[in-house]
Amino acid sequence: MTLHTRRGGDRPPRKGGDKPSGLSIAVLVVTLVATTVAAQTKVTPPKNKYTPEQDVQIGREAAAEVRREYPLINDSTVDNYLDRLGNRLVAASPADLKKPQFEYSFTPVNLKDINAFALPGGPMFVNRGMIEAASQEPEVAGVMAHELAHVLLRHGTANATKAQGFQLGALAGAIAGAVIGGGWGEAISQGSQFGLGTWLMKYSREYEKQADLLGAQIMARGGYDPRALARMFETIKKQNGAGPPQWLSSHPDPGNRTQYINAEAAQLRIAPLPNDSGFQQVRNRLQSMPPARSMADLEREAGSGSGEGRSRPPASVGRVGEPVPPPSRQYRTVRGGDLFQVSVPANWTPISSNNVMKFVPQNGYGEANGQETMTHGVELGVARASSRDLRQATETLVEGFLRGNPEMRIAGGQQSMQMAGRNAIITMLEGRSAVGGTERVDLQTTFLADGNLFYYLTVVPEREYDIYSTAFARVARSIRLNDR
Ligand SMILES: [Zn+2]
């Protein structure tokens, strides 16, 4: 799955040797052009245990979720324009990578952040902010060609192949969660470093370079100079705002991006530029619309609402610092996707994001000191295991956790125990609670059949531990894992 460079490999046989000189020059020119085209870098799709049909199914489910959650533009001028542009790029894609099953779609999203993403099997979403940040059509085409290359090379399911063992439903949910989670998912994983979904849609530097090179080749065949892609990356990098742009966090710069894209461009024959007058029309159309909201606005609004029917977590459940009611004696059973099932006190609110589910009592979760904080409650989730050894894998997980929570420390050694009928480890941690005093955090970990870690984390102020210990233990006993 590495990049192979093939130079002058598929050179067609030279024709004619004793032709009149005029014709001989023409033949020579044709041969040179053919050689130049053959000099493009060959990009090979990485190992993938999923079928193209499964890509389509995962992408379709995740896209349905995105359409429910995101504000779409729904304007025929913009919709048709993006459609035409996308289809032109698909037409310019290598035949051997275009799976007949794939369902390509190109949907403009009414958000001002400079972002775009594509889901397995074809659905692509392009933010209004991306179109507005571009100065010319080839720049938009560049980002779309890069996204399309991820689809054609099936990088989403190639990532999942590395993770292994995830059922399709869980995968679609994780991918949708990763995309929709946006800054929110990051805020949570900053604290916990957990969240497999984010990882699934985060491409490695190797995949990025593949998407850049294949994207450049698609652009050239579609009539766009690939140097526009390098230019757009520079624009994205310079984008002002809090933290790095979302696009760059899932598409990390492999280094020397501009140089190798320009070098590839120099090897390619660029087809004539298509009529790009539609770009200005779309720009004018967007300008006539009310300003777009940002992802951060969207998350704030979701948080202040009832949270009903949304997969995005609410910003709070009540208010941190207000009295927290004790766990109800009534329990209800909740499913965590296809992966697990658990019973929790009936008065705890579920919050799910990526591959993490929290259950928190009223006033047990919200903002404190400018950070999202869980003062009371439990969290269940999946994390990548660094080792096949449970102790070692747990230690790595804990280290990540401690890095994100500088006031936390290990309060005792690891102890063996059982969770969901499997060998597990409990690690006791303690920190400072946002509501004052010492906070007690217990982490239980076990392996899933696929080698990932499943964990169960409990959080409560030390002085209230006695009120919660029975509930925490009962929740732990109720955990059922369905991964085998
Ligand atoms: Zn990428």
Bound compounds, each kind once, are: zinc ion
How helix-rich are the residues, as a percent range?
Answer: 40-55%
Q: What gap, in angstroms, lies between the N and C termini?
A: 30 Å
Low-confidence runs (pLDDT<50, min 5 residues)? Answer: 1-36, 181-199, 304-312
Average pLDDT, all residues: 81
Number of domains: 2
Give the number of helices.
Answer: 16
Strand content: 15-25%
Task: Explain this structure.
The protein is α+β, with helices and mostly antiparallel strands and about 475 residues long. The chain has two domains: about 50-295, no CATH class; about 315-480, Mog1/PsbP, alpha/beta/alpha sandwich (Protein Transport Mog1p, Chain A). The chain has 16 helices and 16 strands. Strands 6, 7, 10, 11, 12, 13, 14 and 15 form an eight-stranded antiparallel beta sheet that branches. Strands 1-3-2 form a three-stranded mixed beta sheet, sandwiched between helices. A three-stranded antiparallel beta sheet has the order 4-5-16. Helix 5 (about 135-150) packs across helix 10 (about 225-240) and helix 7 (about 170-190) packs across helix 15 (about 390-405). Residues about 1-35, about 180-200 and about 305-310 have low confidence and may be disordered. Zinc ion (ZN) binds near residues 203, 208, 211 and 251. Zinc ion binds near residues 150, 208, 211 and 251.
